[in-house]
Design a protein that fits this description.
The chain is mainly alpha-helical and 280 residues long. Helix content is 68%, strand content 3%.
Length: 280
């Protein structure tokens, strides 16, 4: 649980930190679309360049970005193996019953693992550069049109913000409970998979008790401060779009165009047209 990076904020003064939270939310959505648009390895390389560039501009160490992958390493392994064994490819290298390993399956598995890694790194970059309060304000502002159809936009934004805040808190709580259990002779690293799963059961009960206790204390604190007593709440910091947000949007649009171009091999078509033009 020490590798859990989702919901953590990395305090520093950078170009990305000073951007409007609404712009960052929109850019993350555009980044997710770009990841799913990528098809060839060249387009995936362009997405990797986009993530690395964003991390450098944000002054986030790449080691911290890579640390976010450790939390989903088992999911990556499971996804890679599943796609490798059950993808119906034409160039079969090995087969047994319904299990087939093909060249197309290997390529598809690598792409799926890359897609998951890039999605996690991109969303982690958002939480590293934006405080939960700013995320709440940004989500509420973007979802403002839904208020006209009686959707509780503010409540939804607050719930998501609290959930992000509780992720690192609960991960620290798990580490404390595991250390306390180990001090009493418990073992979590020995035995088979089933025995390890059974050893984790004593952690769940105190974890749920701690989570409910924290939730109750938070509810009492909000109620004592008359939270949500006024329908139209004001903000200490007024959000405004600026040149930084425009530069980020232009950069993301350029990367999306590059990914689409690499998918459709526009560069090869351009070279062919250019060579034909020189013949005349």
């Amino acid at each position: 649980m020490k590798d859990m990076t989702l919901g953590q904020y990395y305090p520093t003064d950078s170009f990305t930190h000073r951007m409007d939270p609404r712009a960052k939310l929109v850019l993350v959505i555009a980044f997710i679309v770009m990841v799913f648009l990528a098809e060839s390895f060249l387009s995936y390389f362009a997405v990797i360049v986009c993530v690395v560039s964003a991390a450098l501009v944000s002054r986030i160490p790449l080691s911290k970005m890579l640390k976010s992958i450790k939390a989903i390493i088992m999911l990556l392994i499971f996804t890679g193996i599943l796609n490798l064994l059950f993808y119906n490819g034409e160039t079969v290298l090995w087969s047994w019953w319904r299990i087939k390993i093909s060249v197309e399956g290997i390529i598809f598995s690598i792409k799926m693992v890359l897609r998951l890694v890039l999605l996690v790194m991109g969303t982690t970059l958002l939480t590293y550069t934006t405080t939960p309060t700013s995320l709440t304000d940004g989500m509420e502002s973007l979802l403002t049109p839904l208020k006209y159809i009686k959707v509780p936009v503010h409540d939804i934004a607050v719930i998501m913000s609290i959930a992000l805040r509780f992720i690192p808190i609960l991960s620290e709580e798990v580490d404390k409970i595991m250390m306390a259990q180990k001090a009493r002779g418990a073992s979590f690293d020995t035995g088979g998979l089933l025995s390890r799963a059974k050893a984790l059961l004593p952690i769940l009960i105190p974890l749920f008790v701690s989570a409910f206790r924290r939730a109750d204390e938070l509810a009492l604190a909000l109620d004592a401060r008359c939270y949500n007593a006024t329908p139209n709440r004001t903000r200490y910091k007024v959000m405004k779009f600026g040149l930084r947000d425009l530069a980020g949007a232009i950069g993301m649009a350029a990367f999306i165009v590059l990914v689409v171009a690499l998918n459709n091999n526009f560069w090869g078509a351009y070279e062919t047209v250019q060579s034909v033009w020189w013949l005349f």
